[in-house]
Amino acid sequence: MKKLLFAVLAAASLGLHADLKEKVFKFMPLQSDLGVISGNGTRSQEAVFTRESAAFTPDFKRFETNIPRFFNGGLLIENGGKTPERGAWNFLPAGVPFLEGGKTVKGIHGDALEFSGAKTLKAIPLKTGGAHVFSFYAKGKGNLSLTPLLNLKSGTAKKLPAAGFPLTAEWQRFHVSFSAGNPAKDADPALSFGGSFQAENVTVGAPMLEGPCIYFQTFSPSTYIPNGAFRAADKLKLPVITPELGTEGAFAFVFEPTSQGWWQALLSAGGGWKPELELSYNVYAPTNTRLTLQFRGKKMLAQARLALGQKYHLLVNYTKDGFSLWLDGKKLGEEKAPGAPFTTKDLFLGSRDIEIKSNGIFRNFAIFKAPLDDAEIKELFLNADLTKLLPAKEVSLASPFVCSPSTRG
How far apart are CA 326 and CA 315, in angstroms? Predict the structure, then answer.
């Protein structure tokens, strides 16, 4: 009886796989390159990736201009820009020690300082107001305490609540967030940031002070860059002949956030300020978070909190009559909205055409030419990597990716 039951379940599973396979239009594993697999198994390199600066991964491996960063089995896409108000700057001056005293040792990136007891964090000038993030790497035993300090325009010092961090023998990244106020409106805004560390037998290195961004208020670290340097934004575009998708289909991908920020565009179709489709993750405050899907003139809001370092499966399913949003195999909401085929030819993963970017690691991006049923959506959540499901037709390629210059931050 058990053998018969297993046989029935196996047959049902094979049928489900077959149905899902027939609906695949494009699939990008995004594990080590930007290869695109079509539903018939053909491999191609049609994705366009740009970034106007060199950049590091969280383990401080350097990638040159327009070279995508693959980290922890996925593609790292981050917000950035060439001006302080866009964020992605490390405001710590290059070559200037950040602590008073300590023994210089080899760190995770450049030199680090080893010390016991109390050490003063040297004052770092603040170039703008608004929310800032101070982050650093540390390792050791016991706990590390940081008491932040804001030096105000009046000459007084404002002590912020102390933050405690449990240490291990491995490097870990820690951070504190604070507001520098509004220099244009506040009578006594903050001019510099400092503070003091307290620990026994600790090593601290790779400090970063990130400023605010006009479009992207950051509550946690997002950059991995040397002191005094900047990192431009990553952009991944996939040109597709969207009329082939008709009025029905689905988009799905796995997203791992690396920062909690104000507005992260996770997926968009089309350019300009009003794309035909946009899925974003919005953090209006550390406790006020949601997913927003704008499509066919409708806006769907779904309360959701995506924790840093956790992987989430997101799916947009659409038919000729409406659309729905799914998170980890569960439906968050649906809307009635008749629609025509897409007119755009470009999809952006981890951003939209202008201004808005995300901070996170993307994996297993799939485009389907037909909507998925509930069972298929749950199956895809459990098995998001479709590489083995699709037939293998290897293509000899000259380059693992295609890059082109971009003038937009």
Answer: 5
61 is a domain residue: yes
CA 152 to chain centre: 33
Same domain assignment for residues 40 and 138: no
Q: Is 381 helix (H, G, I), strand (E, B) or coil?
A: helix
Domain co-membership, 278 together with 189? no
Looking at residue 131, its pLDDT comes to: 82
Q: Which residue has the higher pLDDT, 160 or 42?
A: 160
Q: Which of 216, 186, 194 is nearest to 100 (CA)?
A: 194
Give backbone dihedrals phi and psi of 398, rounded to 5 degrees, phi first.
-80, -25
Distance CA 9, CA 14 (A): 9
> Distance between CA 95 and CA 118 in Å, rounded?
22
What are the structure tokens assigned to 6, written together?
Answer: 């297993």
Please give the average per-residue pLDDT across 72-90, as a whole number.
77
The model's confidence at residue 173, banded by pLDDT at 50, 70 and 90, is very high
Q: Round to whole Å and give the CA distance between 343 and 326.
A: 24
- Token representation of residue 72: 């922890």
pLDDT over threshold 50, residue 11: no
Q: Is the CA virtual torsion 387, 391, 396, 401 positive or negative?
A: negative
* 243 and 307 housed in the same domain: yes
User: Which residues form the domain of 174?
Assistant: 103-210
Give yes or no for a contact between 108 and 152, defined as CB atoms under 8 angstroms apart.
Answer: no
In the chain, the largest separation of any two C-alpha atoms, in whole Å, equals: 82
* Predicted structure pTM score: 0.87
Nearest C-alpha neighbor of 291 from the set 265, 271, 311 = 265
Residue 143 host element (H or E): strand 143-152
Q: How far apart (Å, rounded) are the C-alpha atoms in residues 315 and 335?
A: 14
Same domain? 252 vs 385 = yes
The answer to whether residues 139 and 270 belong to one domain is no
Report d(CA 227, CA 95) in Å as an integer: 7
* Burial of 1 (C-beta count, 10 Å sphere; 0-12/13-18/19+): exposed
Q: DSSP 3-state assignment of 307? A: coil
Do residues 296 and 370 both lie within one domain?
A: yes
3-state helix, strand, coil in the chain (%, to 5): 10, 45, 45
Task: Identify the pLDDT of residue 181.
Answer: 84
